[in-house]
Amino acid sequence: MTPRFATDVITFYHPDFWGLDSAEALRDWAYDHPRAFWERVMDTLTEAGVTGLELTFAPGDIDSALRAFGSAASFRHELAARGLSVVSAFVAGSDAPGWRQDGNLPAIVADAERRAAFLAEVGAELLVASLPMRATFGTRPPFFVDAAYMTRMADIAHVVGEAVSRHGVQLAFHTESNSTLWYERDIDLFMALTDPRYVWLCPDSCHIALGGGDPVAVARRHSQRIALAHWKDAVKPIDVHLTIDETVFAQQQPYMTELGTGIVEWRAWADAMSRTPGACTVLIELDEAADPAAALRAGRAVVEGARSWPAVGDRAAAHIERQGQA
Fold first, then answer.
1. What is the pLDDT of residue 309?
2. pLDDT given for residue 94 in this prediction
């Protein structure tokens, strides 16, 4: 099976790509020129041979697409004219109602339903969310990611997952660095507490590795619940306790790298991904590439090289077939 290649819009957030001098300048420019922003993104995807797109936080968010094209249907038409489509939308924590705040469930569900309605109209079937961030290590009083906390998160996830399912959309959770769904133990606990009919997983190979985990092992343990994965490389595990505030994402950046230049075992990862419900899509995530088309082509080459080796299951099937013919 030949997968479709996709990427997160964050791939296009490097100011140099736009001839601007800062992320703030890009956000301001894209807000004022949403159609020009999206047209360049779409043209570059076509140039790179990537046909799928994950929406994320501004400037490449749902509201920006609506400002640019007026409706989800018009956005879908513009994408389709170039052979492109929306794969998913990512709900950044800063863009959504807080999951830790008591009494916030109605707002959380309403926000998710609004996004799911857009996704359904644009032809996508997956809403990707993340759990809240951890607190900085040493904070007093301490914040523990324990069974009681994860049970509350699972309860919210069930309500949200059921709500978006009525739009034909699946809810999957991203394994974000320094979040409460980061370590292998976090992922295993959350998956154990959630109903597989309503809650799916979106493992990120880089972020799991940054937490000292084994992304391949995670993918194999939870293979039947992976609706989508982020293919991303890591330099090494984060070996310090980062300050978890609005700067944490910038602090993590030096630990991330382009596909094939880090520690992720891509052949094993590709093999694990081939056994998941999300196998039809390979989402290459490249945070803020100065030359997105070149970076995406390089990422595709790594993936295609990893996938060119037969998966264990394929080798076994071929062996059985040969035995039957003998």
1. 54
2. 58
Q: What percent of the chain has pLDDT over 70?
A: 93
Q: What pTM does this model have?
A: 0.92
Cβ neighbours, 10 Å, residue 260:
15
pLDDT(83) > 70: yes
Whole-angstrom distance, CA of residue 285 vs CA of residue 231: 6
Angle formed by the axes of helices 62-69 and 72-80, nearest 10°: 80
Residues 220, 223, 226: CA angle, nearest 5 degrees? 130
DSSP result, 93-120 = GGGS--SSSTT-HHHHHHHHHHHHHHHH
Residue 84 tokens read as 């492109």
With tokens 């590439």, the residue in question is: 289
Buried b (16+ CB within 10 A) or exposed e, 170-181: bbbbbbbbbbbb
* Torsion angle defined by CA atoms of residues 283, 286, 291 and 292, in that order, rounded to the nearest 10 degrees: 20
* 129 phi and psi angles, rounded to 5 deg: -125, 170
d(CA 73, CA 152): 36
8-state DSSP, 59: T
Per-residue pLDDT reduced to its tens digit, 121-145: 999 999 999 999 999 999 999 999 9
With vertex at residue 249, the alpha carbon angle to CA 299 and CA 270, rounded to the nearest 5 degrees, is: 30
**Burial (CB count within 10 angstroms: exposed 0-12, middle 13-18, buried 19+), residue 304:** middle
Could you tell me how many residues make up the chain?
326
248-293 pLDDT, tens digit per residue, is 999 999 999 989 999 999 999 999 999 999 999 999 998 888 999 9
Residue 97 to residues 61, 92, 139, 143, 247: CA-CA distances in angstroms?
16, 10, 23, 20, 20
